[in-house]
What we know:
Layout: E1 5-11, E2 16-19, E3 25-35, E4 42-51, H1 52-61, E5 67-80, E6 86-99, H2 103-108, H3 114-117, E7 120-122, E8 128-130
Parallel strand pairs: 4-6
Antiparallel strand pairs: 1-3, 1-5, 2-3, 3-4, 5-6, 7-8
Amino acid sequence: MINRVILVGRMTKDPQIRKTQTGKSVTSFTVAVNRRSSQQDQTDFINCVAWERTAEVTAQYAKKGSLVGVEGRLTSRSYDDATGKRVYVTEVLCDSVQFLESKAASEQRPQQTTAQQSGYYPDSNGSLQDDDFNTGPLLDISSDDLPF
Length: 148
């Protein structure tokens, strides 16, 4: 049997680290991932959980909007909420989280121009050049669009 998940997307909010009663570090975060379909692009919001050293590094270096690569396995669990209703949760248990853009690139992202958001970048002469590895639109998500 194989249970392997690899995702590349942007964090929807700053990850917050917590400690269990036994002192283990854990952080939960959501990654917004584009799904291309024949009609239009759609976005999936994938819940992720990282433990111990991976949780600590993720909470320290990642923030809302960070482009990350997540590798792990899909898990599901259930619990009874305060009203006694059974809640089912599916999430990625992260073995590793990779930061896929530099700190400088991450800090410059909110200041991008409309041309840059469309996948075109000015060259040294000021002419717009197509960014061939990113032909699709950038993920632009407002907090109101998030399901949580």
